[in-house]
Amino acid sequence: MRAADVGLMVCHECHQLNRERPDEDRQQHCTRCGARVHMRRPNSIARTWALLIAAALLYLPANLLPIMTVRMLGSGTPDTIMSGVVALAKHGMLPIAAVVFIASILVPTFKLVGIAMLLISVQRHHPMSPRQRILMFRFIEWIGRWSMLDIFVIAILVAIVNFGSLASVEAGFGAVAFASVVILTMLAAITFDPRLIWDNTDSGNKHD
Q1: For 108-121, how does the pLDDT look when each residue is reduced to its tens digit (9 = 90+)?
Q2: Confidence at residue 67, expressed as pLDDT on a 0 to 100 scale
Q3: Shared-domain flag, residues 171 and 72
Q4: Among 115, 171, 180, 112, which residue's Cα sits nearest to residue 148?
Q5: Which residues have CB under 8 Å from 51's CB, separation 6+?
Q6: Which domain holds residue 62?
């Protein structure tokens, strides 16, 4: 039995359980903190799709545009994420190359595909079990923070490595696009209401 079946709503601000009062015409507020409460997040699926599509559109420039340029003695070539991974591998730094590849290529791709699968499974009643869906959702939430690894490294290098014509590191437009992808996918995971997964198990109950 779900909390919705007995008329209970959780406040997203203080997590207080509130009993639904359907006789009230106006918006219901939390009895503890006064924030608005909803049985399900309004327009959760539509907002998650919007954020996910925006992230997918930025995913291409994030991988195709240079993410940073390292200049030594006035010369240097811009590197994309993938060319940076290849360069690290060629210099024998395989563990670092593997970390960058996983954090900057595999993780964002998995998040985009995973959130899309959750949305499609909820909307089209995909045979994936609720347990599989909720485990995927929790993994997406947990792994999302590691996608910022490249951005943190670039920010540190830009701030530290600045020796004029001898050596410098410049961030590229790919870094901006990549950071936008990470932020948008994190917002998409936050906007998605995981309770829709359990609602979807009952064909007669659908909440957007």
Answers
A1: 899 999 999 888 88
A2: 83
A3: yes
A4: 180
A5: 184, 185, 187, 188, 191
A6: 42-199
